[in-house]
Design a protein that fits this description.
With about 500 residues, this protein is mostly helical. It has a domain of about 325 residues: Hydantoin permease (Orthogonal Bundle). Helices cover about 65% and strands about 0% of the residues. Helix 2 crosses helix 11, helix 3 packs parallel to helix 10 and helix 12 packs antiparallel against helix 13. It is globular and about 70 Å long.
Amino acid sequence: MTTPPAGSTATSTVTLIETRSIDYVPDDERHGKVGHQGPFWFVGNFQPFTLALGFVGPSLGLSLGWTIVAGLAGIAFGTLFMAFHATQGPVLGLPQMIQSRAQFGYRGVLLALVGTLFTFVGFNVVDVVIIKSGLQSIFGWNPAVVAVVITVIAALVAIFGHDLLHRTFRLLFWISLPLWIILTCGVLFGAVTGTADHTGGFSFVAFLVQFSVAASYNITYAPYVSDYSRYLPRDTKPAAIISSVFLGAAASPAWLIPLGAWMATYLGATDALAGISESGNDALPVLGYVLAVVSALVLVATMGLNAYSGMLTVVTAIDSIRPVSPTRRLRVVTIASLAVIWLALGLLLTNATTALNTTLLIMLYLLVPWTAVNLTDYFFVRRGHYAIADLFTPKGIYGAWSWRGVTAFLAGVLAQLPFMVLPFFVGPAAAAMGEVDIAFVVGLLVSGVVYVALTRSLDLSQERAMIESHPELADPASSADIAETVAREEQ
């Protein structure tokens, strides 16, 4: 190999950029602690986007209490799927969507990649809207300039990659935590006050919308959670990483969604950063301004997270059409291209709440069938046994197109259509139920059941025998001719 290991120390700026992208991480490059996963995902959700989730229920007339119940239930539901995906990183040493080739095929995974790329770009578009609008209303800063600056910062963090993202999130954890504690205490002990003009009531439709938006929030992390656990040692205990990711990713929304719901209910807040600034200054002079800036920085770091995984998705898609070398140059060009796209869209949009609701629901509809197929395959069908080297060739045991995974995915998407509720489309079944949205539940069940049924004819004993007779398939790092096995040349 011509590059230094991912964790090595280098003197030049170029060599500080992570060397790995869609390729396998061998055991001698594994580093990190499972205990870091909790704070990492805690900070990933410890930002204005999460607070804005609490605005959804009150905006639809739901009371504070019911908004909190729906939000917490949704977060718990969605985080469960996300946390189970995290176990795949240490076992396989691969980005999430490369592993999905086992279910969809070397080229068939392109179908799932459409949904994941929409997720990464969609998140960053909404993040740009939240930050530019919030900082303009608080400080009067030029929204276009803000959008450009935060896009450049997020792109640079993503370019340097995995280790810088982890270090950045740990630093922001310790900076953010005391500020949010002070603000929360101010709300609980009456330093922050508001009126009761927006108390609302109960609506089953509004309850389900709040539940769905909260559930989709962490389900949409599923396609990239193992991107950030793939450097952990192979012997990492599944229970340890599941609990660490679940607690971290669920704890911060469980904190901020109720706080956001309170701001929407009693302050009439519709802008997350403005609400943070107003209530923070009431709790302690200048706290609101400091917390608004820090919260914006956390959101920018999260944009880097989305850009990094977006890069992995695009490179996987390109590689699925024509094999490529995952070079640093390809990383930079891909991230820069994604940045131009999300910046352009973010400058065009102005209503963050509407964009948030619609984007999260579309993400949910696209990703639920994928997560059902992926988790069913990993835990119930192949049970974690994969020929890793064969994930990098269309001529391997997984083939170019896996009709079972593709069929189950499409079945789940189609099954959701009658139950979808979007501003521009309401399915007939949802309309008959008073626009109650249960599409994601239907998608989960249909895709999971269809995949299990179709894989009953799959000869897994033959797959496992092949892996056991050729150890280099399960661990390409042990193979002397790795370059020929996966057709890669690491730059």
